[in-house]
Amino acid sequence: MALLEVEDLRVAFGGSTAVDGVDFQVDEGQVVGLVGESGCGKSVTSLAIMGLLPRQSKVTARKRHRGGVTVSGRARFEGKDLLTLPRNEMRKRRGQELAMVFQDPLSSLNPVVRIGVQITEVLERHRGLRGEAARKEAAHLLDRVGIPDPTRRLTEYPHQLSGGMRQRVLIAIAVACAPRLLIADEPTTALDVTIQAQILELLKDLVDSEGTALLMITHDLGVVAGLCDEVNVLYSGRVVESAPARDLFARPTHPYTVGLLKSIPRLDLPIHEPLHPIRGSIVDVIRWKDGCAFAPRCDSVTEKCVEGEPALVGTEHAHRCVMAEEIA
Amino acid sequence: MSAETSTPTSTALLEVEDLEVHFPIRSGVIFERTIGAVRAVDGVSLSIGAGQTYGLVGESGCGKTTLGRAVLRLEEPTGGSVHLGDTDVTALRSENLRRFRSRMQMVFQDPLGSLNPRHNVEMLLAEPLRVHRINDRAEQRRLAEETLDAVGLPTSVLERYPHEFSGGQRQRLGIARALMLRPDLIVCDEPVSALDVSIQAQVMNLLDELQGEFGLTYMVIAHDLAVVRHLSDRVGVMYLGKIVEEADSEEIYENPRHPYTKALLSAVPQPDPEVEASRERIILKGDLPSPANPPSGCRFRTRCPWAQDICAEETPVWREVAEGHKVACHFDRFD
Lengths: 328, 335
Fold this sequence. Notes:
The structure holds two protein chains of two kinds. Chain A has 13 helices and eleven strands. Chain A is α/β, with parallel strands linked by helices. Chain A has two domains: 4-244, Rossmann fold; 254-327, no CATH class. Chain B starts with 11 loop residues before the first strand and ends in an 8-residue tail after the last strand. Chain B has one domain (12-327): P-loop containing nucleotide triphosphate hydrolases (Rossmann fold). The relative contact order of chain B is 0.14. In chain B, 31% of the residues lie in helices and 24% in strands. Chain B contains eleven helices and twelve strands. The longest helix of chain B is centred in the middle third of the chain and has 18 residues, at 197-214. In chain B, β4 (79-84) and β5 (87-88) form a beta hairpin. By secondary structure, chain B is of the alpha/beta class. Classes of the chains: A alpha/beta, B alpha/beta. The interface between A and B is large, with 47 and 47 residues.
């Protein structure tokens, strides 16, 4: 059984759909990527799994406008559906079995609370450590994520740390309880390349040594190629291609994946290799139930593409394109 | 963006010499004193040939944006000189400077933040013309339509407002605005970093086309090495206020000499698992030191994996190691 199984996950904010039936799974100790551009629903997917979207009470379910968020589908973690778990049960799992690292480390840390307190908070709540024991463990965690002079850093405030250090602190908090699954939402996007390399190395190391499963949410195909075992490419709220990383990069099948790969300048290709952008933008979209949402931007579009919902075909290397055979 | 070599010759359009921008650090409430300076740009020389693209790379805080702004006198240089053609930009005063600005424009990173949300496209595009006393409405309209066409937007957008556009379209507007006065030099500060991957390529191709069409000279400032490599003829790598290596684009990516350039290049993840598995990484320790108090000798020595005693004692000379390839490092080999 997979550690996390997401099935037909849908999230709508009022009338607009952000996630439109996402399926994927994460196995024990695996690194799985969710890739896509802004607005594809990758972050909302992770928030839904973590139970961080406003919960729907019975009242708001009837009055749809209040709160306005509707979540449906299943996200089974070790067999239990996280979406229907009672609040206190979810709170116990969050931080202990499931943890998350966000993109912007400065806004995820409390600016007026010392680093040490923000780490020991987690240790007290989930591991029952107090006082000196908690402080020692916090220093050990900072050391583990590569922060020099950890005991001094515990007494500092977030603004006294650099961006890379702050992200290390967040990772330290996330792994404080040795979670089974770590969700990282664009953890290196706000960082410089040399610092990004340090953080990716750290994540890789944690996954290898602790056997933590990692769900990596990113727009950067380079990061995916270096880190992930399995990749899911999202477009307009749905997975359009899903495959083992090596397979995806060697044989991209969905025109969107192909387009993305052709549009990025690469250091390992000849210098004046022309770029082939995807035309249009994410606003040129049709609804999945009427056909392929990527059709308006696709170069291989035919009439078949707008005749009803395209299904995700294949098992090992799955894609959602009715023209895939013809294009290949 | 042409493949031919671009060693700067006498046809240089932009000539920057020993440029310095120091921001004073002040202390005290009543008797304010200057107690030091942030050396954002600390003695940079470079030249860009007419019709060429110079790429400036470096991490946040290295001074690349300040350098770009100082070239346009949006930031006051505290030393050195900037020549555009035969004009000494650093010596221009008030009205002369204002008039001269029509020859040098800037494209900003955040297209939404740099466009007035309460102006429609027609007003936005006419503004630079009004500033430079081109007040004829018909002429303004003609130029606006011509420029929109050049950046690939329909003339029907003239009545629309910035919020009605997508990120890529807004960046096209930002570029159109910079083009309105038909400048010689455009400084592009992170022109694509705020855009989605599939849109970045559209904007890069556009910059490429416009350069041919309007004979533009670009200074492209970016942290993304692949973007800079794709756009530039010549590349300068900046670290803590100084350029540490400079060469033609192809040469610097093939043969990086400075340890910092090597580390930067090795840190960029490539979208190919096979390449990734075999890529040799140089992981730098720590963070950028404070530009208010840069390390002695070579500024990179605190993070350099090959640092020796000499690196702390002597500032490395800016020397030419191959034709058109300059580097500021004491060593030639790193084993």
